[in-house]
Amino acid sequence: MPPAIKSALRVSYLSASLPCRTSPVFLPFLYPQQRSASILSAISDNAGAYHKKIRRGRGPSSGKGKTSGRGHGGQKQHGKVPRDFTGGQTPDHIVHGTRGFNNVFSLEMRPLNLERVQSWVNQGRLNPSRPITIRELAKSRCVSQVKDGVKLLAKGSETLTSPLHIVASRASASAIAAVEAAGGSVTTRYYTSKSIRNIIKGRTDPIHSLQSQITIPGQQQEGDRRKEYPFRLPDPASRKDIEYYRDPAHRGYLNYQLEEGHGPSLFFKTPGTGKFVAKAVKKRTASAVENRIW
After folding, report:
1. pLDDT-based confidence at 11, cuts 50/70/90?
2. Cα dihedral 225/226/231/233 (nearest 10)
3. Is 57 helix (H, G, I), strand (E, B) or coil?
4. How far, in whole angstroms, is CA 264 from its chain's centroid?
5. Which of 208, 240, 206, 242 is nearest to 224 (CA)?
6. Tell me, what DSSP letter sits at residue 233?
7. What spatial distance separates the first Cα and last Cα of the chain, rounded to whole Å?
8. b or e along 32-69 (b: 16 or more beta carbons within 10 Å of the residue's beta carbon)?
9. Is 222 helix (H, G, I), strand (E, B) or coil?
10. What string of DSSP letters covers 130-149?
11. In what order do the strands lie in the sheet with 149-153?
12. Measured between alpha carbons, how far is 208 from 216 in angstroms, rounded to an integer?
């Protein structure tokens, strides 16, 4: 490769041929840039970006010849071995059996402690004058990867100083007592995994549904806000969920459906509310006694 032209000679030659009124701004575009061949030959990847492939079975000098690093004989050299393989005898899961089971009805609730909520309020990431729902918690990154709902817990309740109005899926009794002692309120309502995704994306109202009658201080009163969203927030359909959100002890949003003195259960009746009908007992007549053979 021919050597590069010295920059000093090039600049002096071009400056003599060009008029003096040429602006120095255009000089980089007028002079072609040339680099030495040594720069191109020194280009390489970053350390660790490229790993040379190990060529196995290519002679003893490579260090991976003959047995290719697998050793002499045995099943680990011939093929892969399952993790629970015990040499061909009866497997352990048949000899000893399996323990436990997979509960398909269990819910994966994301825990939320009161100390974390108060920390987010102190940082200005949550507005205590507005209701705190799953949407606010997800947008502020107070909780993440919410699958089936959020459960409010009372860890760090002594640090709670702000009156908060929280809407969550579940709440412990101690967390409810701590929030209400600070002047706030807790409301538990039903969510599904799909409705939670729509709430985070702004497609569903995070509070109201067809059966809800929730009134929270600080909430915007703009008529029926459910018409602003393309998807409706569902209500519970199973007996277990209905009984949970009908219970006033859980601060469920369906507790208005309970009559005075009744419990949240849909199966067991409240003592004293059912009607007792006495069965009529037939009296034996004298003719029936006389007609007996024995």
Report:
1. very low
2. 120
3. coil
4. 30
5. 208
6. P
7. 132
8. eeeeeeeeeeeeeeeeeeeeeeeeeeeeeeeebeeeee
9. coil
10. S-B-HHHHHHTTSS---SSE
11. 109-113, 149-153, 170-171
12. 11
Contacts of 114 by beta carbon, 8 Å cutoff, 6+ apart: 152, 153, 154, 155, 156, 157, 159, 160, 175, 178, 179
- Amino acid (one-letter) located at 16: A
What distance in Å separates the CA atoms of residue 127 and residue 45, rounded to the nearest whole number?
49
Q: How many Cβ atoms sit within 10 Å of the Cβ of residue 132?
A: 26
Q: How many CA atoms lie within 13 A of 138 on its CB side?
A: 19
What's the rounded Cα separation, in Å, for the pair 132 and 86?
55
Q: Where are the alpha helices (DSSP H) in 230-283?
A: 239-246
Name beta bridge partners: 152.
Answer: 112, 171
Residue 245's identity, in one-letter code, is Y
Comparing 222 with 31, which gets the higher pLDDT?
Answer: 31
The tens digit of pLDDT for each residue in 254-285 reads: 999 998 888 899 988 887 776 767 777 776 66
Torsion sign over Cα 72, 78, 79, 82: negative
pLDDT in tens, 121-178: 999 999 999 999 999 999 999 999 999 999 999 999 999 999 999 999 999 999 999 9
Distances (CA, A) of 85 to 79, 91, 229: 13, 7, 55
Q: How far apart are CA 107 and CA 94, in angstroms?
A: 30
